[in-house]
Amino acid sequence: MIEAAPVAVVKTTSPDGTRAVGGALAAVVRPGDIVVLAGDLGAGKTTFVQGFAAALGVREAVTSPTFALVRPYTCGAAGAGGVRTILHADVYRLDRMAEVADLGLAELVEDEAVALVEWGDVAVAVLGGDVLQVRLDPGSGDGERLVTVTALGPSWAARAAAVRAAACGPATGTASGEEGS
Ligand SMILES: Nc1ncnc2c1ncn2[C@@H]1O[C@H](COP(=O)(O)OP(=O)(O)OP(=O)(O)O)[C@@H](O)[C@H]1O
Ligand SMILES: [Mg+2]
Known about the structure:
This protein is an alpha/beta fold. The chain has one domain: Rossmann fold. It contains 6 helices and 8 strands. Bound molecules: adenosine-5'-triphosphate (ATP) and magnesium ion.
């Protein structure tokens, strides 16, 4: 596990609040980026991806990629730097790192895509190491989640200020920015 200080911690109080954080962070991704989503079953990882995809103009309903390990979604409008495809992956049922490596996500995102990988936090190394981690944890109240955003690699550390500004923007609810390390 790579240790790094969170860039931002945002509290959401509803699924839509978590979607708003996902939508806000969609503004800072570029082609080639990988976002790993951490958190227990039902934490809100897919919900986050729904908001992220909607912000990039995906019209299809985003659901858990249960039968396909990786599901592509075409963006309606190119996002920052020309993101045209979102690859939504779920590596929950893969029990060996080699199987995650075999998905080839780091290569698949190279041109005009970004990947969002549920349960990807256990596979950061095989995903290339330079990832943004979004961790969802239950909050103290019903329907509350804490969304902790951490830059785990050099390109994300360099964008920490932009990530923090996006995550803590007015649309995303209660937030606290924290200094990256
Ligand atoms: N603040 C919140 N943010 C996100 N989801 C919430 C929130 N409050 C309640 N929920 C509910 O929690 C559930 C989250 O489900 P979701 O499929 O997004 O989780 P997941 O982390 O992808 O689970 P899995 O590990 O099974 O893929 C949904 O039923 C959603 O309505
Ligand atoms: Mg899910």
